[in-house]
């Protein structure tokens, strides 16, 4: 059982597929890890040990009588953010303003991954409605960074990232509407892939634009300790019947990748309204990545990028417009946290015409992003502007200061959601205090495999 802690997700998958390890053994191991570590880290808000062990038994029974190939994630433990419905489990959305209702059916991504053989161990911590780049709310303990529990694990997939980084899970799915996979991955020392819009089929069942016509921002992506583990989960999220991402990486897709034109940029579209300052650690992580990529025979150059000064206000309008239609019971607004309450009030008071105009403008800005970045094979930026802040750094402030601090910590992430393009964050530096810093790589449409290969190169796998 102790050996399981040292397995990569891919090694665990292979052990389960070969019969060298049973699903019940693996599930029991990770449930024990949760019991030991979660009280200090706040990763899980709900642990579904009973249903997990029942699912593990069913997986073992299926293995014993199998007459066809096993599903690709046979017996693999994982968890889902408390923004996604899992049948029979409460969904809180991280808010006290809504009762935590027991879900009647699974979210489409849950259907995909459990159908691929994965076993859910529970629900992980998020900020209220998934709005923020931390994972703190008023209904459960905050998700803390395993590298230093006094610090934030990032968000909104912070509970998920903390669980993976601490060994409570082998890997896991997140979703990313402004950086919510990449931010916690960077904070906790993981790889976090934000696929392009539409790459994961379950993301676009309701279309590729929101109700106002703006680009749909949120997509689902893997968090993992290495690129191969991320590729394994990515395959299951996209099409469980194929092993496209993993097979490409394992068949030479890593070492054969060279000669890319890489544009380096520290420009942020938030700079017109907020001071954006990069810490020495952020610069060091970027310089480390440049050195590795140059040694891999890529052509690295300074990118000349110029962002529309309307971006900050336009993005904020689109990002908050959906709060106006959140189905809150009468009188429950007072139970909202400071940021959600303030931004809901603004969204409710906003004329519909303003939201429609912002959607149109953001669509225009998105096209400009794609055009500018498209001059390069990939664009390289810092992942975050500084090391993870302490718990309470955002939530102790008024709404506007909270939001400003989030933009200053994550000045390069939301723009990628707007563009609809894929991006990945990769750790490249361990600081003197043992924290992780890294870089973000933005790719062209359909370049997720290329991004995973670059992540592997940066990790010197």
Q: Which descriptors would you attach to this protein?
A:
461 residues; alpha+beta; Amidase signature (AS) enzymes; eight-stranded mixed beta sheet; three-stranded mixed beta sheet; 15 helices; 15 strands; 39% helix; 15% strand
Write up what this structure looks like.
This protein has one domain (2-458): Amidase signature (AS) domain (Amidase signature (AS) enzymes). Helix content is 39%, strand content 15%. It has helices spanning 9-18, 23-41, 49-64, 108-115, 158-165, 182-188, 227-238, 244-253, 280-295, 311-321, 338-349, 352-373, 399-409, 414-419, 448-458, and strands at 44-47, 77-81, 90-91, 101-102, 119-124, 144-145, 148-152, 172-176, 191-194, 219-224, 261-264, 299-302, 378-382, 423-430, 436-443. The protein is of the alpha+beta class and 461 residues long.
Helix and strand sequence: HHEHEEEHEEEHEHEEHHEHEHHHEHHEEH
Helix content: 25-40%
Q: What's the shape?
A: globular
**Tally of structural domains:** 1
* CATH level-two architecture: Alpha-Beta Complex
C-alpha-based Rg, rounded:
21 Å
